[in-house]
Amino acid sequence: MKLKRTYFIILFSTITLGLFSSCNKNDDEKEEECITNKTEYVTSVNSPATGTVNQNVTIEVNFGVSNGCGGFGKFIETENGTTRIIEVEAKYVGCICTQDAPIRKTNYEFITNTAGNYELKFKSSPTEFITVNLMIN
């Protein structure tokens, strides 16, 4: 009887440890799986009209995300002469997210070593842009 009881305790302990180990591993894997990136659209831009060569011009950019897990990831830029097309890539972290669709705020830093007029086009829909004309002296 003692042998059966000892065997049962060992078997139960092994199964329990195995379950906890696999649960922790799966939880870690789920966290890694619950990070996604998605291009989102800009809702508004607040920019000065002028700037100075070799100095940062800070432009406030507001963009929408599709749920509460969304936040700023990075800017994706395409440059063509003095025109830049700028998209926001949002980063979604988390598997369980609120279903609101908040507006997030971040800063875009523009710097150039050449004076002139620059056109910054922030993507606000698949075919439309919010355009900022910036004079750099």
From TrEMBL:
Top-level division of the source organism's lineage:
Bacteria
Identification of the protein by name:
Lipoprotein
Query: Native species of this protein?
Result: Winogradskyella epiphytica
Instruction: Tell me the classification of the organism that encodes this protein.
Output: Bacteria, Pseudomonadati, Bacteroidota, Flavobacteriia, Flavobacteriales
